[in-house]
Amino acid sequence: MGKKRPSTDERQLPTASNLCLSGIDKPEEVLKACLPALRKQLGNSLGFTSADRTARVKRYAFTSANQQYGTARERYPILQLCQSVKEIYWAGITVDFQFLNLSYQLVDAGIIIFQGDGFGEKAPVLRAEWHCSDEHLQAVHAQPHWHVYPTPSGQIGPGFSPNSPRDFASDDQVKDVVDSKAQWKNFHFAMSAAWQCGDQKAHISAITSATALESWLCGCLSYIVGQLS
Q1: Is 182 a residue whose pLDDT tops 70?
Q2: Residue 147 to residues 14, 50, 110, 129, 220: CA-CA distances in angstroms?
Q3: Cα angle value 14/6/62 (rounded, 5°)
Q4: Residue 74 and residue 51: Cα distance in Å, rounded?
Q5: Which run of H or of E encompasses 34?
Q6: N or C: which end of the chain has fewer CB within 10 A?
Q7: What is the pLDDT of residues 48-69, one digit of tens each?
Q8: For the segment 129-166, what is each residue's pLDDT rounded down to a tens digit?
Q9: Which residues are within 8 A (CB) of 141 and not within 5 positions of it... i.e. 6 or more apart?
């Protein structure tokens, strides 16, 4: 008798820490394992829809018949997540797999949060990401991590009016507010660092199982709802 093939939940997903393993034949099996918990949080009629991003990368986005769309770096299908006293918040969930060495490798999982009413434009406010490619796990950025989108503001700093002339000395330095906002937008806020253990790279880890992917997605959503509600 042949050796029994381990289930999706038992096998490790191929990441930089275990590229020698056989990989995933069908990404749908991994996402299917995540569906029950996600549907419990967001609704039973929801599921993942696939679309090719490049010749080798396939994206799976969480969708439903009642989805809307929000635009940040890309256009995302979004679902209503929660509502505070003044704002409605929406969530877009994506998971990317790359075809490599005759199998699929999990390379990215993300949640992006938008705010806005049901019929108007939605603005991005928060993004949770976990990049799992070998390149990302060797970089300095924390994996997983948060990104915070700067809120638009028409205010210029106190004591300065755009209509008021001002003389600057030759050695004065003028700060570029736009560049400052862009810098914070690109900042990777570590989500699960353990520097207290003495490891300077304790802010970088890989997703190693379908259960871990499910737990991370559901845990992020629950935490976000708790913070926003």
Answers
A1: no
A2: 25, 25, 11, 8, 13
A3: 55
A4: 14
A5: helix 27-42
A6: N
A7: 999 888 889 999 999 998 899 9
A8: 999 887 777 777 889 999 999 876 533 334 434 444 44
A9: 131, 188, 204
